[in-house]
Input
Amino acid sequence: MNFQLIGVNHKTAPVEIRERLAISESRLPEALKQFTQHPGVDEGLILCTCNRVELLAQTKNGSADLRSFVNQYFGIDPMALMPHFYEYREKEAIRHLFRVTSSLDSMVVGEPQILGQVKEAYATARAIGAVHTQLDQLLTRAFAVAKRVRTETAVGSSAVSVASVAVELAKKIFGSLNGKTVYLVGAGKMSELAARHLLAHGAASIFVANRTYERAERLAAKFEGQAIRFEELYNTCDRADIVITSTGAPHAIFRREHGELFLSRRKNRPMFFIDIAVPRDVDPEMNKLDGIFVYDIDDLQQAVSSHVADRKKEAERAEAIIASEVDKFQSRLQTLDVVPTIVSLQDHLETIRQAEIDRVRGRLGELSPDQQLAVDTLTRGIINKIMHTPISTLKTAAKDSEATTVIDVVRRLFNLHDKDKQAATSGGGRGQA
Output
C-alpha cells in the first residue's frame, strides 16, 4: 500500500494560485499520461475542480517526488507553491480521499457535485490506463464510503452547492431577485444549477451564452430563456443585472475595457459578476470600476459559513464513519499484501517435500498404496507444522503497520525472493518460445 497525495484547495491557496494549476478537461488525459510516466509513479489520478487541484498516486517503491512533477508540468517556481501544498501518504491519503469524495472537505459541506467530479476524474484515468489495480480498489471504496455517508447521515440533506451559495450572495446584494435579468456564461452543470436557483428566487429572464451554441440552446430551453451566440457576448451582456460565469477558458474573458463598455450602455446602472470559474473568467481589474461588483470563488467563503454550523453534528457522524472505513480498507489491503508471500511459502515447501520423497524413493523399495499414503500424510504433516508459525505471524502482522517488515523477514528466511526471480525468468522463457 503505497499511496501518495499532493494538492492545494480553497483552504490552503487563494484562487490566484489555484488558477495557475488548473487543467482543462481537454488537457487532462495528456497530463495523466505524463504523471504516470513520472519516476516512481505506477498509477495516478488528477482531480481538478474550482476549489482544488490534487494528484493521487500509487507509487512503485513507496515514495515519489510529486512536487517535482507539479513544478515541471506547470513551470511554476516551487517556492511560490510550497506554502500552499498539503501532502499525505498511506493511511492519511486514504482518509483525505474518503473525506473529499464524501464532501466533508468541500467549501460547502455536503454539496453533491464533488462525488460526480471525482467519478469523472476516475473515468478519465481508467480510460487511459492510469488507474488499474490498487488505486482502482481505493477509488471504488471511496465511492461506496461517500454513499454510506450520504445514506447514514444528514450531511447532504439540504443540498447546497457553490452555485446555490452564489445565488444567496446575489440575493444579499439586491435584496430581491424579482424582475432581475441574469446572464449565464457557460452552459455546464454549474450554470444549470445556478439557473434553477435563480428562477426559484424570482429572476425574470435568463440569457445563456456558450462557445457551443447548441448547448446554450438546450440549457436556455429548459428554463424558457434565450440562447446567445458566444461571439455576441460583449454586444449583449450589458442587458444583465447579474452575470454568473463559469467557463473553461484559460484566461479572463471579461476585462476592464468590457466593464467600461457595459456601464456606458447601462448608463452606470450597476452590474454584479459572480465568477465561479477557475481559472477566473473576470479580470480583478474590473472590480475597480464604479458600478461593477465582482465576486470570485473565494469571496463565497463568507456565505458558506452559515452552512458549516448547521452541519457540524452530522459532519462529526460522517467523520466517524470515514475513520472506521479507513481502518477497514487499510486492513484489507494489508491482508492482500501477505497473500502472495503465503502462497510462495506453501509452494516452496511443497516443492521441497516432493523433491525429498523422489530422492529417497529408490531406497524405500516398492511401497503399497497404504504405505505411499502414510509417507504422504507424514511429510505433509511435517510441512504444515513448519508453515503454521510463519503463516500465523503473517496473518497477524497484516493487521498492523509492521506487515511489510514481517513479510520481508519471512521471504528472506525461506529464500523466497530468489525463488520468485527464478520463476519469473522461467516463465518469461516459456512465453517467448
Summary: The chain has 17 helices and ten strands.
